[in-house]
Amino acid sequence: MFEALWGWPPPVLDPAGPYASSVTTLTWVLVAMAVVVTAIVVVALWVAVKGPPHLKSKLGGERTIWIGGIAFPGVVLTALLVWGLTLTASLSHDITGSEMRIRVTGEMWWFRVEYLDAAGNVILEDANEIHLPVGRPVVLELRSADVIHSFWVPHLSGKKDMIPGRTNLLRIQADRAGEFGGICAEYCGGPHALMGFAAIARPPAEWSQWMRSQRLAAAGPARGLADDPGRQLFMASGCGACHRVAGTLANGEAGPDLTRIGSRLTLGAGILPNNRGTLMGWIGGAQSIKPGNRMPGYSMLSPAELEQIAVWLEQQK
Questions:
Q1: Would you tell me which of 47, 66, 259, 295 could form a disulfide with 286, CB atoms 3.0–4.6 Å apart?
Q2: Which processes are annotated in GO (biological process) (predicted)?
Q3: Mean pLDDT over residues 190-217, rounded?
Q4: What is the CATH number of the domain that holds 251?
Protein backbone atom coordinates (compact mmCIF):
# COMPACT_ATOMS: atom_id res chain seq x y z
CA MET A 1 0.00 0.00 0.00
CA PHE A 2 2.85 2.36 0.81
CA GLU A 3 4.31 1.87 -2.66
CA ALA A 4 0.98 2.13 -4.45
CA LEU A 5 -0.05 5.41 -2.82
CA TRP A 6 3.25 7.22 -3.56
CA GLY A 7 4.25 8.21 -0.07
CA TRP A 8 2.18 7.30 2.94
CA PRO A 9 0.65 9.10 4.69
CA PRO A 10 0.00 11.63 1.88
CA PRO A 11 1.75 14.93 2.69
CA VAL A 12 -0.93 17.33 3.95
CA LEU A 13 1.19 20.51 3.80
CA ASP A 14 2.68 20.14 0.31
CA PRO A 15 0.11 21.74 -2.05
CA ALA A 16 0.36 21.12 -5.79
CA GLY A 17 -2.51 23.40 -6.81
CA PRO A 18 -4.42 26.56 -5.80
CA TYR A 19 -7.21 24.79 -3.91
CA ALA A 20 -4.81 22.81 -1.76
CA SER A 21 -2.79 26.01 -1.21
CA SER A 22 -5.77 27.80 0.33
CA VAL A 23 -6.35 24.88 2.70
CA THR A 24 -2.66 24.84 3.63
CA THR A 25 -2.67 28.58 4.34
CA LEU A 26 -5.71 28.18 6.59
CA THR A 27 -4.03 25.29 8.39
CA TRP A 28 -0.86 27.27 9.14
CA VAL A 29 -2.84 30.28 10.41
CA LEU A 30 -4.91 28.05 12.72
CA VAL A 31 -1.75 26.39 14.00
CA ALA A 32 -0.20 29.83 14.67
CA MET A 33 -3.30 30.98 16.53
CA ALA A 34 -3.33 27.80 18.58
CA VAL A 35 0.27 28.45 19.60
CA VAL A 36 -0.52 32.05 20.60
CA VAL A 37 -3.60 31.10 22.63
CA THR A 38 -1.75 28.25 24.32
CA ALA A 39 1.07 30.62 25.27
CA ILE A 40 -1.42 33.11 26.77
CA VAL A 41 -3.09 30.35 28.78
CA VAL A 42 0.27 29.08 30.07
CA VAL A 43 1.30 32.58 31.15
CA ALA A 44 -2.07 33.08 32.89
CA LEU A 45 -1.65 29.79 34.72
CA TRP A 46 1.82 30.79 35.84
CA VAL A 47 0.53 34.11 37.14
CA ALA A 48 -2.34 32.35 38.95
CA VAL A 49 0.04 29.94 40.69
CA LYS A 50 3.37 31.74 41.07
CA GLY A 51 2.70 35.36 40.11
CA PRO A 52 2.89 38.42 42.40
CA PRO A 53 -0.28 39.28 44.36
CA HIS A 54 -1.15 42.43 42.37
CA LEU A 55 -1.16 40.44 39.08
CA LYS A 56 -3.21 37.66 40.66
CA SER A 57 -5.84 40.16 41.73
CA LYS A 58 -6.01 41.62 38.21
CA LEU A 59 -6.21 38.16 36.67
CA GLY A 60 -9.22 37.28 38.82
CA GLY A 61 -10.98 40.58 38.23
CA GLU A 62 -14.25 40.96 36.38
CA ARG A 63 -12.66 43.10 33.66
CA THR A 64 -10.11 40.41 32.80
CA ILE A 65 -12.85 37.79 32.55
CA TRP A 66 -14.89 39.97 30.19
CA ILE A 67 -11.93 40.75 27.96
CA GLY A 68 -9.96 37.51 28.07
CA GLY A 69 -12.78 35.03 28.53
CA ILE A 70 -15.52 36.47 26.31
CA ALA A 71 -14.47 39.35 24.05
CA PHE A 72 -11.09 37.98 22.87
CA PRO A 73 -12.22 34.46 21.91
CA GLY A 74 -15.47 35.78 20.46
CA VAL A 75 -13.75 38.29 18.18
CA VAL A 76 -10.87 36.01 17.19
CA LEU A 77 -13.01 32.95 16.45
CA THR A 78 -15.55 34.99 14.49
CA ALA A 79 -12.80 36.61 12.42
CA LEU A 80 -11.16 33.24 11.72
CA LEU A 81 -14.50 31.71 10.73
CA VAL A 82 -15.34 34.50 8.27
CA TRP A 83 -11.80 34.55 6.82
CA GLY A 84 -11.64 30.75 6.52
CA LEU A 85 -15.01 30.49 4.78
CA THR A 86 -14.02 33.26 2.37
CA LEU A 87 -10.63 31.68 1.66
CA THR A 88 -12.07 28.24 0.86
CA ALA A 89 -15.39 29.30 -0.71
CA SER A 90 -14.17 28.60 -4.25
CA LEU A 91 -13.72 24.90 -3.45
CA SER A 92 -17.49 24.29 -3.53
CA HIS A 93 -18.94 27.01 -5.79
CA ASP A 94 -21.72 25.99 -8.15
CA ILE A 95 -20.73 24.52 -11.51
CA THR A 96 -20.23 26.94 -14.40
CA GLY A 97 -20.81 25.82 -17.98
CA SER A 98 -17.16 25.66 -19.05
CA GLU A 99 -15.69 23.56 -16.26
CA MET A 100 -14.54 19.98 -16.62
CA ARG A 101 -16.68 17.61 -14.55
CA ILE A 102 -15.96 14.22 -13.03
CA ARG A 103 -18.41 12.25 -10.90
CA VAL A 104 -16.84 10.15 -8.15
CA THR A 105 -19.00 7.71 -6.20
CA GLY A 106 -17.81 6.10 -3.00
CA GLU A 107 -18.50 2.38 -2.83
CA MET A 108 -17.66 -0.23 -0.18
CA TRP A 109 -14.58 -0.05 -0.60
CA TRP A 110 -13.48 1.58 -3.84
CA PHE A 111 -14.18 4.67 -5.97
CA ARG A 112 -16.34 4.66 -9.12
CA VAL A 113 -15.17 7.38 -11.55
CA GLU A 114 -17.29 8.81 -14.39
CA TYR A 115 -16.16 11.57 -16.75
CA LEU A 116 -19.05 13.87 -17.73
CA ASP A 117 -19.74 16.19 -20.65
CA ALA A 118 -21.09 19.73 -20.20
CA ALA A 119 -24.66 18.40 -19.99
CA GLY A 120 -23.74 15.91 -17.26
CA ASN A 121 -23.82 12.81 -19.47
CA VAL A 122 -21.30 10.03 -18.79
CA ILE A 123 -18.70 9.82 -21.57
CA LEU A 124 -16.20 7.47 -19.91
CA GLU A 125 -16.19 5.16 -16.90
CA ASP A 126 -13.25 4.08 -14.78
CA ALA A 127 -12.39 3.12 -11.21
CA ASN A 128 -9.90 4.16 -8.53
CA GLU A 129 -7.99 6.54 -10.81
CA ILE A 130 -8.71 10.14 -11.76
CA HIS A 131 -6.88 11.64 -14.72
CA LEU A 132 -6.58 15.43 -14.72
CA PRO A 133 -5.17 18.03 -17.13
CA VAL A 134 -2.47 20.19 -15.53
CA GLY A 135 -3.47 23.79 -14.81
CA ARG A 136 -7.21 23.32 -15.30
CA PRO A 137 -9.76 23.36 -12.46
CA VAL A 138 -11.97 20.28 -12.29
CA VAL A 139 -15.29 20.03 -10.50
CA LEU A 140 -15.86 16.75 -8.72
CA GLU A 141 -19.44 15.64 -8.09
CA LEU A 142 -19.08 13.50 -5.00
CA ARG A 143 -21.68 10.85 -4.17
CA SER A 144 -22.00 7.66 -2.16
CA ALA A 145 -23.73 4.41 -3.07
CA ASP A 146 -23.92 3.06 0.47
CA VAL A 147 -22.45 4.71 3.58
CA ILE A 148 -20.67 8.00 4.26
CA HIS A 149 -17.20 8.16 2.73
CA SER A 150 -14.87 11.14 2.39
CA PHE A 151 -12.83 12.12 -0.66
CA TRP A 152 -9.36 13.57 -0.07
CA VAL A 153 -6.29 14.21 -2.23
CA PRO A 154 -4.13 16.27 0.17
CA HIS A 155 -1.86 17.55 -2.63
CA LEU A 156 -4.74 18.94 -4.69
CA SER A 157 -7.64 20.11 -2.50
CA GLY A 158 -9.47 19.85 0.79
CA LYS A 159 -11.56 16.87 1.73
CA LYS A 160 -15.31 16.50 1.47
CA ASP A 161 -17.83 13.90 2.57
CA MET A 162 -19.56 11.59 0.10
CA ILE A 163 -23.10 11.21 1.47
CA PRO A 164 -25.84 8.82 0.24
CA GLY A 165 -28.64 10.72 -1.52
CA ARG A 166 -26.64 13.93 -1.84
CA THR A 167 -24.18 15.40 -4.34
CA ASN A 168 -21.37 17.51 -2.90
CA LEU A 169 -19.10 19.60 -5.11
CA LEU A 170 -15.35 19.92 -4.70
CA ARG A 171 -12.83 21.60 -6.99
CA ILE A 172 -9.35 20.29 -7.47
CA GLN A 173 -6.47 21.41 -9.66
CA ALA A 174 -2.94 20.22 -10.24
CA ASP A 175 -0.37 22.81 -11.30
CA ARG A 176 2.27 20.21 -12.02
CA ALA A 177 2.23 16.80 -13.64
CA GLY A 178 2.51 13.82 -11.35
CA GLU A 179 0.80 11.03 -9.48
CA PHE A 180 -0.91 11.96 -6.23
CA GLY A 181 -2.31 9.56 -3.67
CA GLY A 182 -5.86 9.94 -2.38
CA ILE A 183 -7.76 8.25 0.43
CA CYS A 184 -11.15 7.85 2.01
CA ALA A 185 -10.93 10.11 5.07
CA GLU A 186 -14.13 8.95 6.83
CA TYR A 187 -14.39 5.59 8.58
CA CYS A 188 -16.81 3.61 6.42
CA GLY A 189 -16.47 0.02 7.57
CA GLY A 190 -13.96 -2.80 7.93
CA PRO A 191 -11.61 -2.25 4.94
CA HIS A 192 -11.84 1.55 5.22
CA ALA A 193 -8.10 1.89 5.76
CA LEU A 194 -7.51 0.06 2.45
CA MET A 195 -9.67 2.39 0.32
CA GLY A 196 -7.36 4.56 -1.73
CA PHE A 197 -7.02 5.89 -5.26
CA ALA A 198 -4.65 7.77 -7.53
CA ALA A 199 -5.00 11.21 -9.10
CA ILE A 200 -2.80 11.43 -12.20
CA ALA A 201 -2.09 14.89 -13.65
CA ARG A 202 -0.85 15.17 -17.27
CA PRO A 203 0.03 18.16 -19.50
CA PRO A 204 -3.12 19.32 -21.36
CA ALA A 205 -2.12 17.93 -24.77
CA GLU A 206 -1.14 14.59 -23.27
CA TRP A 207 -4.37 14.46 -21.27
CA SER A 208 -6.47 15.17 -24.39
CA GLN A 209 -4.69 12.37 -26.23
CA TRP A 210 -5.28 10.04 -23.28
CA MET A 211 -9.00 10.90 -23.22
CA ARG A 212 -9.38 10.30 -26.98
CA SER A 213 -7.60 6.96 -26.77
CA GLN A 214 -9.68 5.83 -23.78
CA ARG A 215 -12.97 6.74 -25.44
CA LEU A 216 -11.98 4.97 -28.65
CA ALA A 217 -10.89 1.89 -26.71
CA ALA A 218 -14.10 1.78 -24.69
CA ALA A 219 -16.21 2.04 -27.83
CA GLY A 220 -14.06 -0.38 -29.82
CA PRO A 221 -14.75 -3.94 -30.99
CA ALA A 222 -14.62 -7.06 -28.87
CA ARG A 223 -11.53 -7.22 -26.67
CA GLY A 224 -9.38 -10.23 -27.34
CA LEU A 225 -10.28 -13.36 -29.20
CA ALA A 226 -13.43 -15.16 -28.10
CA ASP A 227 -11.41 -18.37 -27.72
CA ASP A 228 -8.74 -16.72 -25.53
CA PRO A 229 -8.46 -19.10 -22.53
CA GLY A 230 -8.18 -16.18 -20.09
CA ARG A 231 -11.29 -14.57 -21.49
CA GLN A 232 -13.17 -17.88 -21.40
CA LEU A 233 -12.16 -18.49 -17.78
CA PHE A 234 -13.13 -14.93 -16.83
CA MET A 235 -16.61 -15.43 -18.26
CA ALA A 236 -17.02 -19.03 -17.04
CA SER A 237 -16.07 -18.03 -13.48
CA GLY A 238 -18.90 -15.51 -13.34
CA CYS A 239 -16.65 -12.43 -13.12
CA GLY A 240 -18.91 -10.65 -15.61
CA ALA A 241 -21.76 -10.67 -13.10
CA CYS A 242 -19.98 -7.95 -11.09
CA HIS A 243 -17.55 -6.41 -13.58
CA ARG A 244 -17.98 -4.74 -16.95
CA VAL A 245 -15.48 -5.14 -19.79
CA ALA A 246 -16.50 -3.16 -22.87
CA GLY A 247 -16.71 -5.28 -25.99
CA THR A 248 -17.59 -8.46 -24.09
CA LEU A 249 -20.68 -9.94 -22.48
CA ALA A 250 -19.40 -8.86 -19.05
CA ASN A 251 -21.79 -6.10 -18.01
CA GLY A 252 -21.81 -6.23 -14.21
CA GLU A 253 -22.01 -2.96 -12.30
CA ALA A 254 -21.47 -4.09 -8.71
CA GLY A 255 -17.67 -3.99 -8.98
CA PRO A 256 -15.14 -1.74 -10.73
CA ASP A 257 -15.24 -1.42 -14.53
CA LEU A 258 -12.33 -3.50 -15.88
CA THR A 259 -12.35 -2.16 -19.44
CA ARG A 260 -8.96 -0.49 -18.96
CA ILE A 261 -7.61 -2.41 -15.98
CA GLY A 262 -4.40 -3.19 -17.84
CA SER A 263 -3.46 0.49 -17.91
CA ARG A 264 -4.13 1.21 -14.24
CA LEU A 265 -1.34 1.79 -11.78
CA THR A 266 -2.92 -0.02 -8.85
CA LEU A 267 -5.29 -2.81 -7.84
CA GLY A 268 -7.74 -3.25 -4.96
CA ALA A 269 -8.48 0.50 -4.66
CA GLY A 270 -4.92 1.73 -4.49
CA ILE A 271 -3.41 -0.93 -2.24
CA LEU A 272 -1.32 -2.98 -4.70
CA PRO A 273 0.86 -2.11 -7.69
CA ASN A 274 -0.73 -3.46 -10.87
CA ASN A 275 1.20 -6.34 -12.41
CA ARG A 276 0.58 -9.94 -13.36
CA GLY A 277 1.58 -11.33 -9.98
CA THR A 278 -0.66 -9.03 -7.98
CA LEU A 279 -3.52 -9.64 -10.43
CA MET A 280 -3.22 -13.39 -9.83
CA GLY A 281 -2.99 -12.90 -6.08
CA TRP A 282 -5.99 -10.59 -5.99
CA ILE A 283 -8.22 -12.91 -8.04
CA GLY A 284 -7.22 -15.97 -6.06
CA GLY A 285 -7.25 -14.47 -2.58
CA ALA A 286 -8.81 -11.03 -2.43
CA GLN A 287 -10.18 -11.70 1.05
CA SER A 288 -6.76 -12.49 2.47
CA ILE A 289 -5.35 -9.25 0.99
CA LYS A 290 -8.27 -6.97 1.88
CA PRO A 291 -10.49 -8.76 4.44
CA GLY A 292 -14.15 -7.84 4.28
CA ASN A 293 -14.18 -6.45 0.74
CA ARG A 294 -16.93 -7.65 -1.60
CA MET A 295 -14.67 -9.54 -4.02
CA PRO A 296 -14.75 -13.28 -3.23
CA GLY A 297 -11.54 -15.24 -3.49
CA TYR A 298 -11.36 -17.73 -6.37
CA SER A 299 -9.20 -20.28 -4.63
CA MET A 300 -10.71 -23.05 -6.75
CA LEU A 301 -8.73 -21.81 -9.77
CA SER A 302 -5.31 -23.31 -10.33
CA PRO A 303 -2.21 -21.08 -10.61
CA ALA A 304 -2.20 -21.73 -14.37
CA GLU A 305 -5.83 -20.63 -14.66
CA LEU A 306 -5.21 -17.52 -12.54
CA GLU A 307 -2.32 -16.61 -14.82
CA GLN A 308 -4.45 -17.05 -17.94
CA ILE A 309 -7.07 -14.64 -16.58
CA ALA A 310 -4.37 -12.21 -15.46
CA VAL A 311 -2.72 -12.27 -18.91
CA TRP A 312 -6.04 -11.46 -20.57
CA LEU A 313 -6.82 -8.67 -18.10
CA GLU A 314 -3.37 -7.17 -18.70
CA GLN A 315 -4.38 -6.72 -22.35
CA GLN A 316 -7.44 -4.62 -21.43
CA LYS A 317 -6.12 -1.09 -21.99
A1: 295
A2: ATP synthesis coupled electron transport
A3: 91
A4: 2.60.40.420
